[in-house]
Design goal:
By secondary structure, the chain is mainly alpha-helical. Helices cover 37% and strands 0% of the residues. The chain binds heme C (HEC) (2 copies).
Length: 146
């Protein structure tokens, strides 16, 4: 009996990405997956501060050259989800890029973390853009960057 309980708890732990390591992020919000993972992977909410997410959500009609707008009810739900899971000062946006919608890939944190990658590598055909996380992080669609 107890053995079964332990096995069950271990199985449960294995399904919780937050326990798997420092660079695995929970991106399992159902609405987030359906609305924000169709054109690109669901970016980890933890990698931008709440302020940046609010700004991005306020400009969805002009989202990096596309219209990614959603109805008001969905927008409210998504904004709440992003705020609740947002990162802190460590992941703050680059103030110089304040005019555009915030990117994870232009934050000082991101640039420091990826400083060993050559410019030619970023621009190679298979990668194309620093926003294409899954070109290098093969489990990025599960929030896993380890
Ligand atoms: C209609 C397609 C589309 C939808 C839907 C969409 N996006 Fe995007 N998103 C884009 C494009 C295009 C880019 C720019 C990608 C690039 O630079 O290679 C982008 C870039 C981003 C970036 C910046 C990535 C980086 O760090 O460089 C974030 C953050 C982002 N989207 C969040 C969201 C969120 C949150 C949602 C849901 C509300 C969403 N997107 C829905 C098309 C979309
Ligand atoms: C050109 C390939 C490439 C792209 C594209 C890329 N990364 Fe990375 N990323 C790396 C490499 C390589 C490292 C390890 C850097 C090091 O340890 O020096 C890394 C490290 C990381 C880390 C820290 C992980 C750790 O174990 O220290 C995170 C988090 C991360 N990337 C997130 C992202 C996100 C989010 C995106 C997309 C917005 C992205 N990366 C796009 C190659 C890439």
């Amino acid at each position: 009996m107890r053995k079964h309980l332990i096995a069950a708890s271990l199985a449960l732990l294995a399904t919780l990405p937050a326990f798997a390591g420092e660079h695995v992020y929970d991106i399992t919000g159902k609405t987030y997956q359906s609305e924000c993972a169709s054109c690109h992977i669901a970016y980890p909410p933890q990698l931008l501060p709440a302020e940046s997410w609010r700004k991005l959500m306020a400009g969805l009609a002009k989202h990096f050259g596309t219209d990614a707008s959603v109805d008001d009810r969905i927008a409210t739900e998504l904004t709440r989800f992003l705020e609740q899971n947002a990162g802190g000062r460590r992941n703050a946006a680059d103030p110089a890029a304040a005019a555009a919608p915030p990117r994870i890939s232009t934050t000082p944190w991101f640039i420091r973390e990826h400083r060993k990658i050559a410019t030619s590598q970023w621009q190679s055909k298979t990668i194309g853009s620093a926003a294409n996380c899954s070109a290098c992080h093969s489990r990025a669609d599960n929030g896993d960057y380890s």
